[in-house]
UniProtKB/TrEMBL annotation:
Keywords: Lyase, Metal-binding, Zinc. Its EC number is 4.2.1.1. The keyword Isomerase does not apply. InterPro entries: Carbonic_anhydrase, Carbonic_anhydrase_CS, Carbonic_anhydrase_sf. The lineage of its organism: Bacteria, Pseudomonadati, Pseudomonadota, Betaproteobacteria, Burkholderiales. CDD domains: beta_CA_cladeA (cd00883). It comes from Roseateles toxinivorans. GO terms for molecular function: carbonate dehydratase activity; zinc ion binding. This is Carbonic anhydrase. Belongs to the beta-class carbonic anhydrase family. It is an enzyme of class 4 (lyase).
Length: 221
């Protein structure tokens, strides 16, 4: 097994050369500033590379990732990223993005013990428990997992809307729109959960609409 990972340095050189050839002066311009319009809060899964999925270059997407794309009011890491993105970079859109086949969601659904991350996944289990009366009506576990993935996006987007960072931005009239999306590993496509919120007055209605949409997609009949 290689210890110096030279192959990654070689790939980096190839990528840098190709990028500069495609857009001469790209890195010089990037050095001067970053001005992304979007903040992506997604899962740390290696199969979900944020920039590539939406075909954006470095500097065009601000990114925060953690296991199971969780937004927790006590997570200073996530909140700091949100605050910097909104207050300093003036991003206009926050996308909370989950994905199908998420190992964290599956572990939360089945109470699987993984290790230290079990404590983090309690947040996803809270989502499962909140919606269990309906989730339990889906008799097949794969459908439960897919539905929980979407419900988790919905709840984490709701959490993002309820942070002081987003609320303060809305109060001062700053344009910030929160979105909930799910990425399909099976087809490479993003799906809008219709949890799209541009101000505090829209939160409850958007949440109810998105929840009805999820239940309509998965409930029999």
């Amino acid at each position: 097994m290689s210890q110096n990972l030279q192959e990654l340095f070689d790939r980096n050189q190839q990528w840098a050369d190709a990028t500069e050839a495609r857009e001469p002066g790209f890195f010089t311009r990037l050095l001067k500033q970053q001005s992304p319009q979007y903040l992506w809060i997604g899962c740390a899964d290696s199969r979900v590379p944020a920039n590539e999925l939406v075909n954006l270059l470095p500097g065009e997407l601000f990114v925060h990732r953690n296991v199971a794309n969780v937004v927790v009011h006590s997570d200073l890491n996530c909140l700091s990223v949100m605050q910097f993105a909104i207050d300093e970079l003036k991003v206009k859109h926050i996308m909370v993005v989950g994905h199908s086949g998420c190992g964290g969601v599956k572990a939360a659904l089945t109470d699987a013990r993984v290790g230290l991350v079990d404590n983090w996944l309690r947040h996803v289990q809270d989502v499962r428990n909140k919606h269990w009366p309906w989730l339990s009506s889906l008799t097949e576990q794969p459908r439960q997992m897919d539905a929980l993935c979407e419900l988790n996006v919905l709840e984490q987007a709701l959490n993002a809307c309820q942070t002081t960072v987003v609320r303060d931005a809305w109060l001062r009239g700053q344009q910030v729109v929160v979105h909930g999306w799910v990425y399909g590993l099976h087809n490479g496509l993003l799906k809008d959960m219709n949890m799209t919120v541009a101000n505090a007055a829209e939160v409850d209605e958007a949440y109810a609409r998105a929840l009805d949409g999820i239940k309509g997609r998965y409930s029999p009949g």
